C-alpha cells in the first residue's frame, strides 16, 4: 500500500512522540508498505533521517520523508519549543495544501495521522478523501481529584486547564469533524476511548502504540544484587506536576518509617524540581535521593543497569515509553494502576498499585508496604526479572504496528459507510 503518514513529531533515536512517529514510519516500511512521511521541518532532523536511510538501503525505496514548515524560521524549531502545541495546531491547518500536492502526485491508498497522538487536536487530512486512520490517540487520561492533593498552585491551574480542554472535545467542531470523517479511530486507553462519541465507537479500537527494539533487551536472567541490601529505585522523566514524583516521595517517607532501606535516583528536570527538593527535605528522605539532570543515552543505559526497580507513579500517562525502556534493561516497574501504565503492566513484571475505591492514605500505604516488602525479599524482583524476556518478546514495535494495522485494515475492508 502507498501510505501518507502525518507525523509532526518524528525523529530517529528519540523517545516520546518523536520516537512514535519515527518507529511507525519505519515499521510500516518494514512491513512492505511504501510510506511518505510528512513531518515538521528541522535541519537536525533532516540529517538524522538521511543518516538512518543511508544505513538502511533496504528501506530507501519505501520510506520517503517530506518536510514542511512555515514562517521566517523555516527549518528551525527553536522559536516554537515553548509554544509547541500552538505551532502544532497551526501546522495542521497549513499542511493540508502540501498533503494535497503529494496526493495529486502519488495517489495514496491510505492516509494516517500518527503524531501528535492526542484526542484534543484535529487533523484536516480527512479532506484528501482517502481512507483515513487516526491514532493511536491519548489525552483522555485524567488524574483522580483525590490524588492531586500534592500539586503546586501552578500544577492545579494547569490541570484544570487540561480538564476544561478535555471537556471541550465534545463541542469542538474541528475534532468532531475529524472523528466523523475518520474510517478508523485508534485510542491508546479506555479513558481516551470514553471521549469518542458513541456513534463513532463502531469504528474505534484500543491499541497501545509503543514497543521495544528487541536488540536493546538486556539479559535479565541473572538475579539482582541489591547493594548492601539497599533497594535501588529509579525515576526517569520530566519533573512536572502530573508525573507524580511528589506521590513517590510521600510513599517513600512512609516506607522509610516502616524500616525500608532504599535510595531513589531521579533523572530529569522540570518546573517542579525545587518543590520536589523541598518536599524530600520535609519528608526527611533527602539523604536517600540522588538528583540528576538529563544525561546522554549511553549514561542513561548505565543508570538503568545500576538500579533494581523503576518507581513510576505518573497520574495520567497515555502510554509509558519509560516503562518499556526500564523493562528492556531488566528493571521491574512499580506503578499506579492508571492510564497507559495500567494497560501496559502486569503483575508478572511489576507491581500495579490499585487505586479504585481507595483513599490517598490507602494508596500511599499500599505503595510503601510494597516497597518495604521488596526490600525484605529480593525474590520479589528476581521472579519478575525472569518473566521480562517473554513479556517483551510479544511487544516489539513491529508487533504493535502490525497488530494495529491488521485490525484497522480488516475494519476498512468490512466498512459500510453510514
Strand order of the largest sheet: 3-2-1-4-5-6-7
The CATH homologous superfamily of the largest domain is termed Glycogen Phosphorylase B
Helix content: 40-55%
Helix/strand order, N-terminal first: EHEHHEHEEHHEHEEHEHEHEHEHEHHHH
- DSSP summary, beta strand count: 13
Name the poorly predicted regions.
Answer: none
Could you please say which CATH topology of the largest domain applies here? Rossmann fold
Q: Classify the beta-strand content into a percent band.
A: 15-25%
Span of the ends, CA to CA: 25 Å
The total of helices stands at 16
Gross morphology is globular
Could you tell me the mean pLDDT?
A: 91
Radius of gyration: 22 Å
User: Helix/strand-derived class?
Assistant: alpha/beta
Q: What is the number of domains?
A: 2
| Name of the top-level CATH class of the largest domain | Alpha Beta
Biggest pleated-sheet summary: 7 strands, parallel
Description of the structure:
- The protein has about 425 residues and is α/β, with parallel strands linked by helices.
- The protein has two domains: about 1-210 and about 395-415, Glycogen Phosphorylase B (Rossmann fold, 3-Layer(aba) Sandwich), CATH 3.40.50.2000; about 215-395, Glycogen Phosphorylase B (Rossmann fold).
- It is built from 16 helices and 13 strands.
- The strands form two sheets. Strands 3-2-1-4-5-6-7 form a seven-stranded parallel sheet, sandwiched between helices. A six-stranded parallel sheet has the order 10-9-8-11-12-13, sandwiched between helices.
- Helix 1 crosses helix 16 and helix 8 (about 245-255) crosses helix 13.
- It is globular, with a radius of gyration of 22 Å.
- The model has no long low-confidence stretch (mean pLDDT about 90).
Amino acid at each position: 500500500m502507498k501510505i501518507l503518514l502525518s507525523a509532526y513529531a518524528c525523529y530517529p533515536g528519540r523517545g516520546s512522540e518523536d520516537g512514535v512517529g519515527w518507529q511507525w514510519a519505519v515499521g510500516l516500511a518494514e512491513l512492505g508498505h511504501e510510506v511518505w512521511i510528512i513531518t515538521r521541518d528541522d535541519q537536525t532532523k533532516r540529517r538524522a533521517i538521511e543518516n538512518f536511510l543511508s544505513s538502511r538501503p533496504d528501506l530507501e525505496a519505501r520510506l520517503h520523508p517530506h518536510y514542511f514548515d512555515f514562517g521566517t524560521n523555516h527549518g528551525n524549531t527553536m522559536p516554537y519549543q515553548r509554544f509547541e502545541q500552538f505551532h502544532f495546531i497551526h501546522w495542521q491547518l497549513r499542511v493540508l495544501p502540501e498533503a494535497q500536492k503529494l496526493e495529486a502526485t502519488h495517489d495514496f491508498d491510505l492516509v494516517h495521522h500518527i503524531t501528535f497522538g492526542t484526542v484534543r487536536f484535529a487533523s484536516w487530512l480527512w479532506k484528501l478523501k482517502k481512507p483515513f486512520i487516526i491514532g493511536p490517540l491519548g489525552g483522555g487520561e485524567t488524574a483522580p481529584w483525590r490524588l492531586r492533593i500534592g500539586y503546586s498552585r501552578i500544577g492545579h491551574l494547569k490541570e484544570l486547564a487540561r480538564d476544561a480542554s478535555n471537556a471541550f472535545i465534545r463541542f469542538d467542531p474541528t475534532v468532531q469533524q475529524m472523528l466523523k470523517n475518520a474510517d478508523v479511530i485508534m485510542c491508546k486507553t479506555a479513558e481516551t476511548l470514553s471521549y469518542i462519541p458513541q456513534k463513532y465507537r463502531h469504528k474505534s479500537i484500543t491499541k497501545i502504540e509503543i514497543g521495544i527494539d528487541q536488540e536493546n533487551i538486556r539479559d535479565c536472567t541473572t538475579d539482582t544484587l541489591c547493594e548492601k541490601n539497599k533497594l535501588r529505585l529509579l525515576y526517569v522523566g520530566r519533573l512536572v506536576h502530573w508525573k507524580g514524583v511528589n506521590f513517590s516521595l510521600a510513599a517513600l517517607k512512609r516506607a522509610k518509617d516502616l524500616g525500608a532501606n532504599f535510595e531513589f535516583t531521579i533523572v530529569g528536570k522540570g518546573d517542579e524540581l525545587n518543590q520536589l527538593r523541598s518536599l524530600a527535605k520535609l519528608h526527611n528522605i533527602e539523604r536517600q535521593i540522588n538528583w540528576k539532570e538529563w544525561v546522554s543515552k549511553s549514561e542513561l543505559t548505565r543508570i538503568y543497569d545500576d538500579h533494581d526497580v523503576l518507581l513510576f507513579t505518573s497520574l495520567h500517562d497515555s502510554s509509558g515509553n519509560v516503562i518499556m525502556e526500564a523493562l528492556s534493561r531488566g528493571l521491574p516497574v512499580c506503578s499506579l494502576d492508571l492510564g497507559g501504565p495500567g494497560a501496559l503492566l502486569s503483575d508478572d513484571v511489576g507491581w500495579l498499585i490499585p487505586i479504585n475505591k481507595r483513599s490517598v492514605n490507602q494508596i500511599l500505604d499500599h505503595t510503601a508496604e510494597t516497597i518495604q516488602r521488596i526490600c525484605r525479599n529480593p525474590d520479589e524482583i528476581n521472579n519478575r526479572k525472569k518473566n521480562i524476556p517473554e513479556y517483551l518478546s510479544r511487544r516489539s514495535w513491529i508487533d504493535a504496528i502490525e497488530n494495529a494495522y491488521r485490525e484497522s485494515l480488516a475494519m476498512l475492508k468490512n466498512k459500510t459507510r453510514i
